[in-house]
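User: Run a structure prediction on this.
Assistant: Running it now.
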Amino acid sequence: MADVAIIGAGPTGLACGIELKRLGVEAVLFDKGCVVNSIFHYPAHMTFFTTPELLEIGDIPMTSVGDKPMRGEALKYYRRVAEHYKLDVHQYELVTQIDGQDGVFVAHTQDRNGRPRTYTVKKVIFATGYYDRPNLLGVPGENLDKVIHYYNEPHPYFNHDVMVVGAKNSAAIAALELFWSGARVTMVHRGEGIHRHVKYWIKPNIENRIKAGEIKAYFRSRVLEIRPDSVLLSTPDGDIEVKNDFVFALIGYHPDTDFLAKHGIVFDPETQRPCTNKETLESDRNGIYLAGVIVAGMHTNEIFIENGRFHGRQIAEDIAKKLR
């Protein structure tokens, strides 16, 4: 049986598995979706905002056709890395509970057919990310089928009235692609304008479309209610009803802190950062480690694949030392 259970098979989880294997520690990885499930759910034609070498793990070179890799290239790369290192990845197997204590943990899981399984391990690493937990608007009608929290591609929305809520990178890219594909696009954002951190080659493009009236934007505004054929907005000029077929609520994502707290992970009440040893990333619950973006708490923009991938070595070295 494996020595370590890794919850999450994204780039950081894979990096943890690789570093442990290099040190002679066997790990089993679980993901409720596929390998690098979050990347799989990125927009179909997404381009990363970084260079290939900054996405590399396990000293396996990554190549791309352009200066910046595409989503498809990243998926192919991480599949190749998992295969190269012969990582024991259990895809579509949800971890429901971790019982026990340091040295003798029991991981309870459920496979894709609903069958329960158990695994006994000595250490546990949570590398669960945050992308599968969308921030909600918290308004009536958000449960309608027309409301979408993940943008994939624009084609299905041709010749429809589409509202994009948010004004950061994902919202700006979605609004542009939807517009280019023939959707009638409206943006809504509670701030003064397009977010200042939107990438430099995207920001002027979306702002020019808004200035030309090609994309309608309501700033300093918020959604009050989502209705089957419209959306009710609060704007500086009063409440208005906007004709609508689909709503993309792209206002960010957050870690599953409830699940982590249930397993003894303590969080700072202000930042929601979990309490971990800065050198080893071990949590206050002995034997349980945290890796990747969940270490940043609410500040999810501090940790990306580029730096989260290094958590694997920190954690693996501490675990290997303690298991000797």
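The mean pLDDT is 94.
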